[in-house]
């Protein structure tokens, strides 16, 4: 695998190191040892698939608070998405900054999302599927989210907004939850929660 760290420390774009021949190619898509060598958590607690019927659909911006903060390895297995992650680590020099990465069935690219990041994406083609390998179990009591169009985040979606769940349409603006977000996402709070 080819690991490229983004401007958000700990977040990596992962490309396949393809071994090609007349049949096509073969490539490793996950390896605990390679993930550890790059300082990434190689634990997979759950594997999820999302099928999206129409382009323009938005899912996000999701996260879980510690002690159930998630890592995610996201790959698009059919169609294409624009995946966006936002750094929610209060101590980080890139706090509230984001990156966008196009993931598609054609580019076979994956995005590793560290703990304490918000994650979401917009579907770029009809009948798109995404696969998530998640490092923590889904825990409804500690889940959270941010509005996809929060002016503080400045996220740029390439298509008009299409389908969205009522839950995603109802996330609060950052201004309403930032003090609690900072407290619950801080390293000190995280360390206390893990004791």
List keywords for this structure.
195 residues; 4 helices; alpha+beta; globular; 36% strand; five-stranded antiparallel β-sheet; six-stranded antiparallel β-sheet
Describe what you observe in this structure.
This protein is α+β, with helices and mostly antiparallel strands and 195 residues long. 15% of the residues lie in helices and 36% in strands. The strands form 3 sheets. The protein has a 6-stranded antiparallel sheet with strand order 1-2-10-7-12-5, with no helix packed on it. Strands 9-8-11-6-13 form a 5-stranded antiparallel sheet, with no helix packed on it. Strand 3 (19-21) and strand 4 (24-26) form a beta hairpin.
SSE topology:
Layout: E1 2-5, E2 12-15, E3 19-21, E4 24-26, H1 32-37, E5 46-52, E6 58-64, E7 72-78, E8 80-87, E9 98-104, E10 110-113, E11 117-123, E12 128-134, E13 143-145, H2 166-169, H3 174-185, H4 187-193
Antiparallel strand pairs: 1-2, 2-10, 3-4, 5-12, 6-11, 6-13, 7-10, 7-12, 8-9, 8-11
């Amino acid at each position: 695998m080819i690991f490229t760290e983004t401007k958000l420390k700990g977040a990596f774009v992962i490309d396949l190191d393809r071994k090609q021949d007349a049949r096509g190619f073969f490539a490793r898509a996950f390896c605990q040892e390679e993930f550890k060598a790059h300082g990434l958590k190689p634990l997979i607690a759950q594997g999820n698939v999302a099928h999206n019927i129409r382009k323009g659909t938005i899912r996000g911006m999701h996260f879980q608070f510690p002690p159930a903060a998630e890592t995610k390895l996201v790959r698009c297995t059919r169609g294409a998405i624009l995946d966006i992650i936002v750094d929610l680590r209060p101590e980080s020099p890139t706090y509230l900054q984001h990156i966008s990465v196009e993931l598609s069935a054609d580019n076979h690219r994956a995005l590793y999302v560290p703990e304490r990041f918000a994650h979401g994406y917009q579907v770029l083609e009809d009948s798109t599927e995404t696969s998530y390998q998640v490092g923590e179990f889904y825990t409804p009591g500690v889940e959270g989210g941010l509005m996809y169009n929060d002016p503080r985040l400045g996220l740029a979606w390439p298509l008009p907004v299409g389908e969205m769940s009522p839950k995603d349409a109802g996330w609060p603006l950052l201004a309403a939850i930032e003090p609690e977000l900072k407290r619950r996402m801080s390293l000190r709070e995280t360390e206390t929660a893990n004791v």
